[in-house]
Amino acid sequence: MSFLHIHHVHKRFGETHVLKGVDIEIEKGDFLVLVGPSGCGKSTLLNMIAGLDSISEGELRLDGQRINELHPSKRDIAMVFQSYALYPSMTVAGNIGFGLEMRKVPRAGRRAAIQRVAELLQIENLLKRKPAQLSGGQRQRVAMGRALVRDPQLFLFDEPLSNLDAKLRVDMRTEIKQLHQRLGTTIVYVTHDQIEAMTLATRIAVMRAGELQQLGTPQSVYDDPNNLFVAGFMGSPSMNLVPARIAEKAGALVALIETEKATLALPIVRDRQALTDWCDKAVMLGLRPEAITDPASANRDGGEIFEADLEVDLVEPTGADLYVVTRLGGTNVNARMRPGSPPQSGTQTRFAFDVSRMVAFDPDSEARIRDRASVGSAPLASSA
Amino acid sequence: MSVATSARAASSPGRRITLGRAILYALLLFFAVLYLLPLYVMLTTSFKPLAEIHQGNMLALPEQWTFAPWREAWGSACIGLECSGVHGYFFNSIKIVVPAVLISGLLGAFNGYVLTKWKFRGHKIVFGLILFSCFIPFQIILLPMARVLGILHLANSTSGLVLVHIVYGIGFTTLFFRNYYANFPDELVRAAQLDGAGFFTIFFRILLPASVPIIVVTIIWQFTNVWNDFLFGVSFASGDSAPITVALNNLVNSSTGVKAYNVNMAAAMVAAVPTLLVYILAGKYFLRGLMSGSVKG
Amino acid sequence: MSDTASPHGKGVRERLQHWLPKLVLSPSCVLILFFVYGFIAWTSYISFSDSGMMPDYAWAGLRQWSRLWSSWTWGIALHNIWVFGLLYIVSCTVLGLLLAILLDQRIRAEGALRTIYLYPMALSFIVTGTAWQWFLNPGLGLEKTMHDLGWESFSFNWLIDANMAIYTVVIAAVWQATGFVMAMFLAGLRGIDGEMIKAAQIDGAPAWKIYARIIIPQLRPVFLSAIVVLAHLAIKSFDLIVAMTGGGPGNATAVPATFMYSYAFSRNEMGIAAASAVFMLAVIAALIIPYLYSELREPRS
């Protein structure tokens, strides 16, 4: 039995169908990140877990117990809100201790608990202040302290970092991850930031328009996307999506890509079985920027490398990396190269394609074309 | 953003006093004098002996300062057949204002809380119906109210007026608190619910302590309205239970005897002092009430 | 917010929590329903009855309404409220806007001046009426002052002149409310985007043109609010007229509010009084309901 079981959950607000049957299961100690563009239903789902929104259909189970009808305060859940929602008229200590006070924890016990959490979050010197006197990062810590002090079964985070500036966001991200590792708590975390999702999660649930697109570990979601949406949404810069045609050439399956000068024939090594049925049909190929490199940086141990000369359109150095833009199948394609000796734009240079990482999608249904055997690594839970 | 300022900054770097500025200040000053004049005349008249009023200039300061008109207005002027000044009516007004303001304010705070943080199907209609009660001409309720107060044995009593002012004050107090709490983040209420706080705990522990500004606005608005009311007072309370405004009108517009203008002005000042004091001490909040009472907050 | 997990068959406490919000709202709703809407219904009904001193619930059709419309005094009252309302709204708006623009020139002592312009709003109409009645007193007030100052021919006896008395009420009412209108306009002026004004200045527009072409057109919502509020105050005006003129001389300054009051409480003509009150309500409702609707309608998300 999983620790948190979201079973076929629907949410309707009048006519609008906000959640269309979502199934997610996580284990104790998991860090689940619900990620998706705004309006995908991730915050609604979080509020339903908290008990702040009612469930139209389906079931929620926490540690085996059905919690659909349980009042928010009885679910043993704590939540960190996007706006932090600190009570403006109470001190930091009052804010952190309020939940305990409501649960009739005696004063001495409360004090000790507040002290413990304040030490953990390094906010002992702020305990007497009011929220208005705190900086954004400090408020964030107090909001977390308020959740931590209750020691609940489940923590909910609703875009907790979105109000912080970029640098602080990265620092707090690290701290949240450290806290999770240290305390072994179970967390459900909502964000629209896919980098936050990748760095924090042990499980990622990608959502769109009220439907779960993919549930899996960060790596499986990244490497093995279920559909075009997940492929495009996760990763920055995003996955290159190139129109191509599957063909048989000398007994081997290849993907033909039009370039300005010639037609490229990339050998198919992944999902070969499934793609056999796609012979002479158009597909959408997905290749991460780091799977297209200069020949010297190509991963020749695990991968399977195919090399080709292509014209360089544009060069974008970022310091750590160098992104080289070329054109494949009529679209811009990003390749990640060593920053050392950049090729000149307008010249021809040699690109190395790691075709073992190449994935293909049905351009009409946007679904992934994959062999059955590989499905197991990334269970698809979404209902069509 | 002032056109003049930035225009001036752009055209002439020096801070010259131009003819335009002089005219501007002259105009502003002229209007200031115009607005202060009635108050000035009221005050000076109230300190003059009657003889000086009949002979002297209305705008002149008293040649002979006297507090007698104030003493008479407060303690011995005749209103109707009773010759004991306005002080009794002044206290009547206080007896009406205090409970009416507190109760209507509390009801409004609860209503605003429910209408923003515990919304239910139809909450907008309920608010609309409550709000419309602010704007009805009260003539429409005078007749039935007089009868109902009679049935409840509240006619000609300050308690009756308290009831009336509570009922017709709810609209404004609800408007104030609703608009204030509408800007209050819902997440606070959600957080408190997760913390285990119930309906009243959330209100008294979290919202109310953060509502000081709107409480002040509401108290000032209701205080001013109830204190300055005349229509309800004259319709539902007569004789001993009348509020100060009714007493003042009876004093000033009674047709018997010689008109003691100085006493009238002193009595008018007595009636005006509480609200003027509130205005001077808390003008900012007074203005906020006025604005949100007319425009959406 | 109220959409928390619903307590099906839960304990009494939780069910109570569920109903508590509505329970807390209900006293106000009951009071408003009875004392506002119930009373409106009652008064409306009475306007179709033969009620005199006591209510008479027999249906009398439009009898009271036709009596009302053929009443000479009611004609005067309607004429007066029209004159009073129009002058009051126009003067307050023009003067209020003028004061707001003058105050918006980054002047010294703005706070003090604003306080002075606005203080009459804190006074009771009865106090205002008393003050202005004295100020405009034909024997001892303004007229005498002017004579003392050497302007022997100055004559100002509007207060007792049946044709002019209504204008004295307008003066006092404008004195009382201008500051309020000024505050509304000032808030509107302060809300206008400064960059637009800078852009106009760079385009070379003179100050008056910037006001006329850019700023004042943008104040349209404030004009609307001011006019609605003033119109509503005008129709309800009762106290000031009672205090200044008592509706006189004769019936010269009667308005619907004083008409209603005298028929209700002095002449014991409940039916006519009710009809006049219903008429007042209808006019205000026609004015206020569309306004409230547009003000409170939240933009669809």
UniProtKB/TrEMBL annotation, chain A:
A GO molecular-function descriptor: ATP binding
Keyword rRNA-binding: no
Domain ABC transporter: 4-234
SMART domains the record matches: AAA
Classification via InterPro entries: AAA+_ATPase, ABC_transporter-like_ATP-bd, ABC_transporter-like_CS, ABC_transpr_MalK-like, ABC_transpr_MalK/UgpC-like, Mo/tungstate-bd_C_term_dom, NA-bd_OB-fold, OB_MalK-like
SUPFAM superfamilies reported for this sequence: MOP-like, P-loop containing nucleoside triphosphate hydrolases
Coiled-coil segments: none
Keyword Acetylation: no
Protein name: Sugar ABC transporter ATP-binding protein
Species: Salinicola rhizosphaerae
UniProtKB/TrEMBL annotation, chain B:
SUPFAM superfamilies xref list: MetI-like
Intracellular or extracellular location(s): Cell membrane
Alphabetized UniProt keyword annotations: Membrane, Transmembrane, Transmembrane helix, Transport
Transmembrane segments annotated in the record for this chain: 22-43, 96-114, 126-149, 161-181, 202-223, 265-287
Domain ABC transmembrane type-1 residue range list: 90-282
Cross-referenced InterPro entries: MetI-like (IPR000515), MetI-like_sf (IPR035906)
Protein name (Swiss-Prot/TrEMBL): Sugar ABC transporter permease
Organism, scientific name: Salinicola rhizosphaerae
Lineage of origin: Bacteria, Pseudomonadati, Pseudomonadota, Gammaproteobacteria, Oceanospirillales
TrEMBL record, chain C:
Keywords of the record: Cell membrane, Membrane, Transmembrane, Transmembrane helix, Transport
One Pfam family named in its UniProt record: BPD_transp_1
Subcellular location: Cell membrane
Signal peptide extent: none
SUPFAM superfamilies assigned to the protein according to its UniProt record, in alphabetical order: MetI-like
Claim: Transmembrane helix is one of the keywords in the record: yes
Residue span, ABC transmembrane type-1 domain: 78-293
Topology in the lipid bilayer: Multi-pass membrane protein
Transmembrane segments: 23-45, 81-103, 115-135, 164-189, 210-235, 270-293
Family matches, as Gene3D superfamilies: MetI-like
InterPro entries with a match to the protein in the record: ABC_transporter_permease, MetI-like, MetI-like_sf
Family assignment from sequence similarity: Belongs to the binding-protein-dependent transport system permease family.
Taxonomy, superkingdom: Bacteria
Protein name: Sugar ABC transporter permease
